[in-house]
Amino acid sequence: MDRQIVRLAVPALGALVAEPLFVLVDSAIVGRLGTEPLAGLALASTVLVTMVGLCIFLAYATTAAVARRLGAGDTRAALQTGVDGLWLAVGLGVVLAAATWVAAPWVVGALGAGGGVAEQAVTYLRWSLPGLPGMLLVLAATGALRGLLDTRTPLVVAAAGAVANAVLNVVLVYGAGMGIAGSGLGTAVAQIGMAVALVVVVVRGARRHGAQLRPAAGGILANVRAGAPLLVRTATLRVAILVTVWVATGLGGASLAAHQVVMSVWGLTAFALDALAIAAQALVGHSLGASDVARTRALLRRTLQWGVAAGAVMGVLVGALAPAYVRLFSTDPDVQRAATAALVVAAVTLPMAGWVFVLDGVLIGAGDGRYLAWAGVLTLVAYVPAALAVHAWAPADATGLAWLWIAFAGVFMAARAVTTGWRARGTAWMVTGA
């Protein structure tokens, strides 16, 4: 069981880390064009990341459904589910790309941008939007392959895509003189290439096992029904993050800058814990599909042990080394003090975060999206008063930011731990069979 967890989690971690490199490379290349292009990129990439993040259900729901059918011994139906997920992704991607292209000036303006920054943001957004269907296809295809217990192929494709993106950006931005438009186009081409590579793998498997390739209305609707609750669950997480940023903004410039440092470190640890959650999704879906309740329980216990242990190790590293590495982010003593204080809080809560991330993966793998949607709403209801209390009474200094992270990494994550843990103790989520 440990070997299976590691075999799935390690490549999944590599693929998760490869994706953020797109934004990192774009930032490094566009940053040399000047302040306005870099600021425009920040706004445009926020819009793209938010849209893609809300569509993560294309990966999660597909992983659970494909793994369950594979566990039940019906590989053809598993691949058919994957193909239906691809059609849903491309349809959704085309609609979102077209709507965002038209609404780009309004969306950028709503974020508070104007003048040259807004112009740069709209340019990048519109040139990158042809790649949005590709981005969503990557999610759906990756979800299908994870459900087939293959996390290595997405890793290889993600790594190749990151390299291609870097090369295309340099050539188009500087060589072709396209500026920020070249960066958007380069990212779009790289994402489309990744989508083609992953879709070819899924289609080959579908043909080999006799699954049909044309769109099936019933299968696409089934993917929509499975994905809708996960969309709600993801939206509650995004709202919690936005509320946290809003409170951090009210604490002053130094606290907001420090919060960005802490959130960056927190996001890095989340990748490792997400990799374990992905392994849990695939393995739990497979065991429930095989109607093996005993193995499902064993997987639950073992993946939780992995999650808590990984969170504890990362917590020690994050907390103990915080005074040293915060200096890499800022030379401002106020930012350093605030970031260090908040990172210590985050470090203490990381074992609990490991528990939460894995349980989230287990319940997604079980197809328990409806419960996760309601749990997301409840945790948000529990968190918002705590965040508002920090906004009203916390001082605008390191202590205030520490209180904010007590609310986010403490109260919010504890609420998630309680709601998911209570569900996992019962048996309602363990629906067996295909």
TrEMBL record:
Transmembrane helix keyword on record: yes
Subcellular location, principal: membrane
UniProt xrefs under Pfam families: MatE
Any one GO molecular-function label of the UniProt entry: antiporter activity
Record localization: Cell membrane
Bilayer-crossing regions: 43-66, 86-107, 127-148, 155-174, 180-203, 239-259, 265-285, 306-326, 338-359, 371-394, 400-418
InterPro entries: DinF-like, MATE_fam, MdtK-like
Record GO cellular component, one term: plasma membrane
Topology in the lipid bilayer: Multi-pass membrane protein
Keywords in alphabetical order: Cell membrane, Membrane, Transmembrane, Transmembrane helix, Transport
Entry's family note: Belongs to the multi antimicrobial extrusion (MATE) (TC 2.A.66.1) family.
Name this polypeptide is given: MATE family efflux transporter
